[in-house]
Amino acid sequence: MQENVQLLVSGIQNGIAYSLVGLALVLIYKTSRALNFAQGTMAGFAGYAAYELIVTNGWPWFFGAIGGVVVAALLGLACERIAIRPLLGAPLLSLVIATIAVDSILANVTQLRFGTDVKAFPRVWEGNDFTVLGINVGRSYVIIGIVTLFILAGLAFLLQKTKFGIAMRAFADDQYAAELMGIPPARVSRVVWVLSLMIGGITGILFAPLLFLQLGYMSGVFIKGFTAAVVGGFTSLGGSVLGGLLLGVLEAFCIKYAPSPQWAAMLPLLLILVVLLIKPNGIFARGEAVKRV
Amino acid sequence: MAPETDTILELDNVVLGYKRSVVVHGVSIRIPRGGKVAMLGANGAGKSTILKAISGFVRPRSGRVLFEGEDISKLAPNKIVGRHLIHVPEGRRVFPSLTVAENLRVAAFGVSGDPQPQIDRVLEVFPNLKKRYKVSAGLLSGGEQQMLAVGRAVMAKPRMLLLDELSLGLAPITARSVYAALDEVFEDGLSVLLVEQNAKLALEKCEYVYVLRNGQVSQQGEASDFNDSETLRAAYLGSL
Amino acid sequence: MSSAVAERTIASRALDFLKSPRVWGSVLIIAIGLWATGFNKYDSYVVSLVGLYAVVGAGLVLLVGISGQLSLGHAAFLAVGAYSATNVALHTSWGFVGEIVVALVVSVVIGTLIGLPSLRLSGLYLAVGTLALGYAAQQVMYNWDDVTGGGFGQPASADVIILDRKYPLVQISAIVLAISLVLVSNILRGRTGRALNAIRTATPAAAAVGIEVARRRVLAFTMSAALAAVGGVLYAHAIQRVTPEAFSIDFSIALTIMVLIGGQRSLLGAILGSAFVWGLPEQFRSIQEWKGIVYGVILLAIIVFTPDGIVGAGQKVIVWIKQQTGRGRKEEQALELDIEAAEASLEELAPATPDALTESSIVSAAPASSNGHGGASSHLALTHPGERLVLENVSVQYGGVTAVDSVSFTVEAGAVAGLIGPNGAGKTTLFNAITGLVKSTGSITFGDQDLSNASVGKRVRAGFGRTFQNLSLHEGMTPVQHVLIGAHRHVKYNPFAEMVRWPTVAKREREAEQMARELLALLGLSQVADERADLLPYGLQKRVDVARALASQPRLLMLDEPAAGLPHDEADALLDRVLELTSVTGTSVIIIEHNVELVARVCGYVQVLDAGTLIADGPPESIMRNDRVVEAYLGA
């Protein structure tokens, strides 16, 4: 029993991370109708940038981290301008390819600028992991958990209480009607990308100590966050959070109880695929009028 | 050229089309300041397209749209909202995941100032909305949604309103009650262009009428001229 | 009864054969393969790679470009082929042929298994699904030691063994590439290629003429899987040690990027893309470091400026050159003249009298039974006699709203009925219920067939045909191709015959094209039959929509707002012409319209809907004066 609770906790720890990534992706999808394939690489770039500020330039940890987040925000702005705006109204496939192109460029830039060696990212809070009621809780994960809560609270505040946040929700509901209210689509698009990439940057920086700075270190998290968003239906922020947690927990249990290693790695993904096949729009998506073709 | 102080909106030989088809073949309309004008016609006549051209979603192939003397043909929709020319779209299109309160607030996005006086006014005119103030707009009935849509328009302190098919999809009684409430919205000085399929409802509120057929103005005149049902009937159903 | 299909001399057929790109392209590729045998080891390795990637590319052109299904995990199928090769070499002595056969069998099985469920996903979710599958497949490869040798991998020989003789890889690559290109090319110009294009460009229209969307898509997926596997077999021999590391998501994405850069809808694009992505870097060693940036920038530029890749850019250049040399202007003028002639022709056509039509090959004179097709299947009969359509208490409900409420009416066989009503009355919903796009309660019978719960496909087979309010034309396709799409169900042959262009296939295609042109002539579209339909004036486009519907041999033709967007006289002329044609063969017609005048003129009987209920039905004169109808339109 103890073991299972430990698994649950580990699963939740990872799940929160996936949720964050999924959240950022859903934000963009709901407004730009685009899938940001470059999210993982951009998050990684933020990690590298922060590293350079902290380690090479000697900045205090927090300022370095903020610097990294700013870099991520700028990347988001640039991507929106270069890859998304010119493709207004293009089919989803084109937008996905465009972000794949951006990803390819950025990955190369990361390599050229920061090199291929593995670096250890300084931890902000040195010390051992906690043990609560016999359950091991990773120190870094505590931080990640707290930060995630703050981000969720911040987003909730923005979307529920601020004028612009409500405008963003309106925009996601019905773009045409939103424009009729005087909401400028270009501005909403920019803000959304900046927000999404700020979250991405935070994720990249928080994960750097755990995964070590190396090329493509955020790819795995990105893919998992991606599937978390899909499970959540890509329609609601809450959905992607739940999706992430589900994925994390599922993964933890599968790794422990699966018959052999290959299944352990594959099972969570297959399970998600099965989910998709039963509910092609994700578990939490709303139903649509029946269409038979 | 001396400013036309008594015309608030003018369409000057406007031609509109989507891709390869021409939907509106050169329409000219003039609306005096403070006037209440109806645009009638069967569906497909081009009425909604004309409203979209006025509010900035469709660019005229030729011809101009002038609001208060200014050529707005090429302006983006949010700029037109900033000039207090407000379009209430066909099919209501309230934001389903936002509450009534949020729908009203967001409608003030394009204009400056404290929205509270406007909100108070809307709730006064549409007491139903007051009752459902915190309810998600997606759960409202058709009639309530239509009132919310009109209420949103009021939030932007309009100098001119474009109303698109208010009665569409509503039961006759509901449509009547929506129109009845319009009296309080149509205070003096507000200019209105009302597009409707339901001619009788529109005629009760308007002084001047344009009848559209196949993308052209087929008839126009004082509303009183159209009280003869035969003229209207022919306009919609054609002559045998 | 049928007009003679032009007999062509043996000489002219031989000449056409030699001129076709299929032939000299294959010869060229094989020649390059032979020439490259003399290269040093490294260069011939590069040529082999370009060749085998082009094979994979051909499959992706079929899947991504033509069928419009994104796959971000195709490296998995390459792996299937590669591991097939290594295992066959390890455990048997079947040689190359055995490797290919095993690769094909396994990939077809897996491809079908994956293709089927992936149908339920679309767009975004399909991309995710294939991504996840690719990732999962790689994990399996790492862990399934028995078959893949795990992380350590399995070896493969540099040369290819056929019947105990060794052949250089580069030669075999060239031959395989040539064969693959010919096979795929035949699919592209056959009914499967047309159907896939139709599905991609206008799915509802494709379904409305009886194309089985799901089956075609799975077929495309499976074929592309098979081609990737064949490429994989060659790949094993090229790299000589197959490890899971190679088949990463990055690799899958690179494969997709390859066809996008080359030109996703063109086989030439597959070759160019392969050469560009895999061949060039080897030549420009110095830019290896900058590979990601260079590809990213080029890919972005292509997506934004020329979505059809290098081939598309090339086409734009050709157009530009034509404009500069004045040839473009001449072509434009000729086209304008053709369009004018086509527009004017409708009124000048000989009236479609029963005698005139039945003598042409278009109309089958054989009596039609209620569920069979009259005449040989290769005849493009224009229409078939209609049956009686009976609607009883048909209702449509969704989301708690009753859009159509207990509507009942009858359309007699061969009658022309109108369905009118104000905006929002439910006409479109009722229409969708009749065609099967939307679920309904109540009964719908056609002749003696109960179609109340039938699928869209079944209703089409029973004889339902329709036009579209928004035309739903297929982008980039000509009127001839539209008619051939419409006739899809009646031009029959199986995919295997199609791949090798069996003589019966060629014959059926020729006959079908002949019939198509005759049909287009009946609608005054002869002069523009080979121009892009989506670039024609609106009135001509409407005729193309009608032609496509007629080509499906409907017994009940439903016209969805045929007058919308057309000036009075054009609408009248088109409708009159269509009704001339259908009256000859006795096809039932339902016209959904807002334009009451037009409906009153041509329909014998009119149904009026308001707020989902039938408020009046009867002859036009009575409808026009009916108080309830007037009220519905003008308001109470």
Task: Tell me the layout of helices and strands.
The complex is a heterotrimer of chains A (293), B (240) and C (636).
Chain A lengths: L1 H31 L6 H18 L4 H24 L7 H23 L15 E3 L2 E3 L1 H23 L1 H11 L1 H6 L4 H27 L7 H13 L5 H21 L3 H18 L15
Antiparallel strand pairs in A: 1-2
Helix pairs in contact in A: 1-5, 1-8, 1-9, 1-10, 2-3, 2-4, 2-8, 3-8, 5-6, 5-8, 9-10, 10-11
Chain B lengths: L6 E12 L2 E12 L3 E5 L6 H9 L6 E6 L2 E2 L5 H6 L2 E4 L11 H8 L8 H10 L1 H5 L10 H14 L4 E5 L7 H14 L5 E6 L2 H7 L2 E6 L2 E7 L6 H9 L3
Parallel strand pairs in B: 3-8, 3-9, 6-7, 7-8
Antiparallel strand pairs in B: 1-2, 1-4, 4-5, 9-10
Chain C lengths: L9 H10 L1 H16 L4 H26 L8 H17 L3 H24 L4 H21 L1 H4 L5 E2 L4 E3 L2 E3 L1 H20 L2 H11 L1 H6 L4 H27 L1 E2 L6 H14 L4 H17 L7 H15 L3 H17 L1 H22 L5 H6 L29 E10 L2 E11 L4 E5 L6 H9 L5 E6 L2 E2 L5 H7 L1 E3 L12 H8 L8 H6 L2 H20 L15 H14 L4 E5 L7 H18 L2 E6 L2 H7 L2 E6 L2 E6 L1 H6 L1 H8 L2
Parallel strand pairs in C: 7-12, 7-13, 10-11, 11-12
Antiparallel strand pairs in C: 1-4, 2-3, 5-6, 5-8, 8-9, 13-14
Helix pairs in contact in C: 2-8, 3-8, 3-11, 3-12, 3-13, 4-5, 4-11, 5-11, 8-11, 9-11, 12-13, 12-15, 20-22, 20-23
Structure description:
- The complex is a heterotrimer of chains A (293), B (240) and C (636).
- Chain A is 73% helix and 2% strand.
- Chain A has helices at residues 2-32, 39-56, 61-84, 92-114, 139-161, 163-173, 175-180, 185-211, 219-231, 237-257, 261-278, and strands at residues 130-132, 135-137.
- In chain A, strand 1 and strand 2 (135-137) form a beta hairpin.
- The longest helix of chain A is centred in the first third of the chain and has 31 residues, at 2-32.
- With 240 residues, chain B is α/β, with parallel strands linked by helices.
- Helix content of chain B is 34%, strand content 27%.
- Chain B is built from nine helices and ten strands.
- In chain B, helix 3 runs parallel beside helix 6 (142-155).
- Chain B is globular, with a radius of gyration of 18 Å.
- Chain C has 636 residues and is of the alpha/beta class.
- In chain C, helix 24 links the parallel strand 11 and strand 12.
- Chain C is elongated and about 90 Å long.
- The termini of chain C are far apart.
- Chain B binds chain C through residues 20-23, 42-44, 165, 167-169, 171-172, 196-202, 214, 229, 232-233, 236-240, and chain C through 422-424, 536-538, 541, 561, 564-568, 594-597, 600, 611, 620-621, 624, 629-630, 633-636.
